[in-house]
Structures are given as C-alpha cells and as structure tokens.
Amino acid sequence: MRNGGLLHPELNLYLSLLGHTDRFCIADAGLPIPDAVPRIDLAFAPGKPSFRDVYEAVTGVTVIDKAFCAEEASEEMRQSFQERLGPGCVVTALPHEELKVLVGSVRFVVRTGECTPYANIILQSGVFF
What is the pTM of this model? Predict the structure, then answer.
C-alpha cells in the first residue's frame, strides 16, 4: 500500500503513462466526454469530490507545462489555476465550445463531482528535467 499521494489505482496508472506534451482533462460533473476518450469517474455525489481537491492532488504529482481553461470561468477560478501551476506554466483561456472540442483529443478525463460552471481544465504534461 502507498503511504500518501494519490491512492486511486486507475488514476495513478493513467498519470504514469503520460509523456511530454500529452494532455488530459480534469472536469466538472457536467462536461460532455466523448465516448472514445477514457474516463476516470471519481464523482459520487454533487460536489464530491470537489474539483479543487482533485486538481490539487493531481498537480501535486504531475509536471504540467501548459493548461487550457474556459474563458467563461470566473476570474477567481482562472487565477487559482495559474497560482497552483506557477509562473512557468502558461494557462490559456479559450471559449468553452473550443475547450469541449479539445477534450476529444486528450488521453483521458478525470470526472469530479464539481457542480460549479466551467470548472474544467486541460493540462499538458511537462518533464521534470
């Protein structure tokens, strides 16, 4: 048994398979996920787990060099994305409709129980060296 970090085996597997520039999405409960995109569904009740909890856990163990969010997301939400990822990571805001199209090209989606509108982010894997 692991002694900390991420404990979810399927999430650990998908994260460990990421290569440089691979993209994945952390999504709220309502984001449409194309059938062809693998889904790690963590949602078990409205708001649970929260987007923030999943986002912090995943970004704590993954190198991210670029991110995409909806320009319709609140300024506070977009700022929190940038703060967590740091100044070396570019967070690009796109129209929500464009973000939904981009979801079709990600390696996988992690679905949370979040019910806040536009609580979705596509993260691009970086390298640790």
Answer: 0.95
